[in-house]
Amino acid sequence: MFGKRSAGATAAPSLSPRGPAALQPAPRNKPEPIQPAVEDRRSVPAETAARSEEYYQMKSMIFGALIEAIDLSQLAKLDSESAREEIRDIINEIISLKNVVLSIAEQEELLDDICNDVLGYGPLEPLLARDDIADIMVNGAGRTFIETGGKIQLTNIRFRDNAQLMNICQRIVSQVGRRVDESSPICDARLADGSRVNVIAPPLAIDGPALTIRKFRKDKLTLDQITRFGAISPPGAEILKIIGRVRCNVVISGGTGSGKTTLLNCLTNYIDHDERVITCEDAAELQLQQPHVVRLETRPPNLEGTGAVTMRDLVKNCLRMRPERIIVGEVRGPEAFDLLQAMNTGHDGSMGTLHANTPRECLSRIESMITMGGFSLPSKTLREMICSSVDVIIQAQRMRDGSRRITHITEVMGMEGEVITTQDLMVYDVLGEDAAGKLLGRHRSTGIGRPRFWERARYFGEEQRLAAALDQLEQTNEGHVA
């Protein structure tokens, strides 16, 4: 299928075919994107030595010769490993025919680079292969940043030009049936492993396409693991498990990168396996382990500007699908009203996340999102609806040292006049920092004897567990530093 010219040639002749066994040339125009070989990512460190302009010129020359020499439609029919081996064989021959002098290490690096360009996501592949990276931020072709260990750092990863970066962005979003171009320059998508992707392209992005990837962890975190990381104390984690188990309506609040979605994934572990759960997301990234889960995803408008399916459409449709729990990945707008309606009409245990810095601000944001959606309800009526729908607010925060903490477990109690009243079950206090700049603090009880959901815990047979967790949390107040 991919015949190759003899490596013994003394000159550097054209790679166009000379017989039935020769390579079939592809058209010179831009090739169609090929399914990325996500499973075959090479683990190459991100902090490779800076490459020279000569390297990129040589790579561009060899890449051009490869595209002329290979039939991409035939290559697409091969599995990823076979396709990679075919490309490597042809590149080796091109290097020989072009009399390019490279060391073995340089040749291997070039082979991997070009294979990634053709089969995967180009220079992003080594970053996607690393498990210690939380975010990848590409600011045009020449600057790529990563977040690892809670800190952002510049890498030496770069793209050939903005056209290559845009092509990779198109390849990513096309996998989920979306597009990004001048007429639709903003796009949310996801990778095959669930990683969340945002692309904003020129003319909105002035210095070239901006690509942001929130990496999806292959090993799904549990509450026990984030407890070991210090995000919450053991008795606090026990309270969260009970909250998930006894079907409290939960809103997880926090800033960008505070761990809201991770925490939502953790809480869903405590949903019974006989419950029908429906998830609604802009880009599907939740990974529920229950057997009866229906995953829904929004859809942007088509080229004519029609056919969009909004989050509100999904949440409203959920109510016709006999859900027992509705999970909304992120509440951003008027769908907050429909989620409250669902929470208040027999769908106990529903959950969602939203951006807010405190539990009190979370309640205000729910109210403002509903108001901006065009609902002309009196403020008091709206607040009464919030009180009767939301049971618990869990506040997550990314601290200034890069660590993540659950800072509040807060109950929504009711109304006093026209004001929503809340009570904190647990809060996190920052006590100082160590010599390395790591913050020291503790999770402490606020001394609440019985939370509002005590009767719900009794109904589910969890009151003894809840009492023990509250007692243990109270005992940690004296002198404990986490």
UniProtKB/TrEMBL annotation:
Keywords (alphabetical) are:
Kinase, Transferase
Q: Where is this region: Disordered?
A: 1-49
Pfam families from the entry? T2SSE
Compositional bias annotation for Basic and acidic residues: 38-49
Query: Which CDD domains does its entry note?
Result: VirB11-like_ATPase
**Which residue range or ranges hold the Bacterial type II secretion system protein E domain?**
121-399
Signal sequence range: none
The protein's name is Pilus assembly protein CpaF
Q: From which organism does this entry originate?
A: Bosea thiooxidans
